[in-house]
Design a protein that fits this description.
Length: 319
């Protein structure tokens, strides 16, 4: 990696990560850069494959293609059938033909040079990330309870998957990567005697196979949207009420003390110390961390983030 930009947007729940990523997508598109969005399940990733260039060449992502009035219903059905066939039937050996940036015979090739900016997310909606979204964040729906150790293991698994399939290639080609969350979500899983006594130890977290990869290849920059370290229960509950209308609240969001712990970790040196420890173990550079006020307006956060992003881009051009 030379002057790759690998930018992560993070923070406690209700921090507006999706909105901020959409603002950054708009920014790059206005700059004339080709942006492609890998967020979503496996079919969303397959949409960008070279074999589907007749469908994907003009679209940011699958949603944009499927909602376009310029694309006929039959053409939309045709793509879904072809992509689904790769996952259902695979090849002659009945192997899944998942998407990747590698021509390796066991995956469906996406040309990494088909875009200058690639958008990703964590947890993913494919592989082990799907386990996190449907099980680990919703355990009470299955008659179970929060298990941060199990969550940490599931997270580290998809970090191997997503790095080997996508991010490693993009970093090697000095592409711009923008993703929601990363291994910094240790804020949600690492042990705390009072609030998270069942959490994983920091030492064990950093030693997991996926985190050897993650902390050995961390983001270059972190944009963290968070509240003050003195955030109160009342303040969080009010913010959740304002920002969760029509949204299914998961177990993480419903646990107020848990959210206050997560926020304190995001807003204090706890996060920097995590990366310093990772650096000692794996030798990678600690990301540059910029924090933004969760109570600033959407427009204020947008302006501040884009100003900082512009500064980062100018810096990268001088390297």
């Amino acid at each position: 990696m030379n002057n790759c930009i690998d930018l992560v947007i993070g923070g406690p729940d209700m921090s507006g990560t999706s909105t901020q990523i959409d603002d950054i997508v708009d920014f790059f598109q206005l700059e004339g850069k080709v942006v492609r969005d890998l967020r979503g399940n496996e079919i969303h990733a397959l949409f960008h494959a070279q074999i589907f260039s007749e469908y994907n060449s003009d679209y940011l992502n699958l949603e944009q293609f499927l909602t376009s009035k310029e694309v006929g219903t039959e053409e939309k059905k045709e793509f879904i059938f072809k992509a689904s066939s790769l996952l259902i039937a695979g090849d002659r050996n009945r192997d899944l033909k998942i998407a990747s940036f590698l021509k390796n015979g066991v995956s469906t090739y996406i040309d990494p040079d088909s875009a200058e900016v690639w958008i990703m997310e964590e947890p993913t909606k494919r592989g082990a990330g799907q386990v996190n979204r449907t099980i680990e964040q919703q355990r009470t729906k299955y008659g179970s309870e929060l298990d941060p150790v199990a969550a940490a293991y599931a997270h580290q698994a998809y970090r191997i998957d997503e790095f080997l399939r996508f991010r490693n290639v993009l970093r090697g080609k000095n592409k711009i990567i923008v993703r929601s969350r990363s291994e910094e979500s240790a804020c949600y899983q690492v042990h705390d005697q009072k609030v998270l006594p069942t959490g994983i130890s920091r030492e064990q977290y950093l030693s997991l196979p996926g985190h050897k990869i993650a902390f050995g290849n961390p983001p270059t920059h972190l944009f963290i949207v968070c509240a003050s370290s003195s955030w109160t229960r009342e303040e969080y509950v009010l913010l959740k009420k304002e920002r969760s209308e029509g949204r299914l609240i998961d177990d993480h969001e419903a646990n107020v003390d848990y959210q206050l712990l997560v926020n304190r970790r995001y807003t204090t040196n706890w996060l920097e110390e995590l990366y310093v420890e990772g650096q000692k173990m794996y030798g990678a550079k600690v990301p540059e961390i910029t924090r933004f006020d969760i109570y600033a307006s959407k427009q204020q956060i947008k302006k501040q983030m884009l100003d900082q992003l512009g500064f980062i881009l100018r810096q990268s051009m001088q390297v």
